[in-house]
Amino acid sequence: MDSKEPPTHINNSSMEITQSLDEDPLIDGPLISPDILDKAIKREFQQLPTSWAALLLSLVHVAFVCLSVVLAVFCSILQSHQDQCRDYLSNLPSSPVIVFAKVCLWLLLMAFERYVQRHHVAARGRGYLQFYRATRNLRSLPVYIHSAGNAAVLMVLAAEPLLKGVKHLSVSLLLGILVLELLSVPCLLLYSVRVQNFNRERPEPDVSQEERSHGYPSNTHPLSTETGFRDGSNLEDVVEKQADLIEYLKQHNTQLSKRILSLTSQQMRE
User: Fold this and answer.
1) What is the tens place of the pLDDT at every residue in 65-123?
2) Are 27 and 19 in contact (CB under 8 A)?
3) Taking the chain, what is the end-to-end CA distance rounded to the nearest angstrom?
4) What residue spans carry the region label Disordered (predicted)?
């Protein structure tokens, strides 16, 4: 009698497991094809529309410096054209006009930096962390250069009463500052080239590239992913990179869960 009891318990437990599997809608539902899921999850590549703004700002900057040099030479340094300059400038000296135009250019640079930052933050959210970090200095360096130039111009204007002993010294210093600020133009041009290359290559997010390199290592795709702190590496950069990667993975997992639920409900209705 006792030897027959264990099979009874085994049969009962197996029946309960079978019943629970039959009642589970996720297991009993249709399976999702991996190809369909990949197509649903994969986003179309979004280009960065910021290269044209960098090129346009470079042209505006070069034109501003050239016009400022012409205005300063003909209206302040040369004596023969000062009467014509007074008529065109409404009796204003050339230096205040140049400084006012420089302030307008600085405001354009600030608007450009905010516009570019917004698009690059969106690209970082789509998983392009390395490109965001590689172009960070190119985006901010022109603003730093012009801000330093503004400080230098303020110093020249403040010391202008002391510089009256040397003829045209303040105007020459002002033009020298404007010429030095042209160093921001190569930064803008290099940034524009990098953005155009990025849009042309249409790369996948960094996580996808790293997974592919881990899956298929070769000489052309070395395993250079830094997942932790190494001797000689910058701890701050490692922590920042990992924080960006975690934020992207959280957003990606949220989107993945929504897609899976949506496709599952569609197939259940079919």
Assistant:
1) 999 998 888 887 776 666 677 667 766 777 888 999 999 999 999 999 999 999 999 88
2) no
3) 52
4) 202-231
**Per-residue pLDDT at 146 exceeds 80:** yes
- Residue 9 placed within a domain: no
DSSP 72-110: HIIIII-STTHHHHHHHHTT--HHHHHHHHHHHHHHHHH
pTM to 2 decimals? 0.67
Q: What is the CB-side half-sphere exposure of residue 92 using CA atoms within 13 A?
A: 11
Q: Which of 37-46, 88-97, 123-132, 211-220 has the highest mean pLDDT?
A: 123-132
Among residues 114, 119, 129, the alpha carbon closest in space to that of 247 is found at 129
Quick: pLDDT tens for 190-199.
999 999 999 9
CB contact burial 151-183 (16+ within 10 A = b; e otherwise) = ebbeebeeeeeeeeeeeeebbbbbbebbeebee
Sign of CA dihedral 51, 54, 57, 58: negative
Total domains in the chain come to 1
C-alpha span between 204 and 195 (Å, rounded): 15
Domain that holds residue 83: 51-207
Domain assignment present for 76:
yes
270 within domain boundaries: no
**Domain-located, residue 101:** yes
What does the pLDDT read at residue 15? Answer: 47
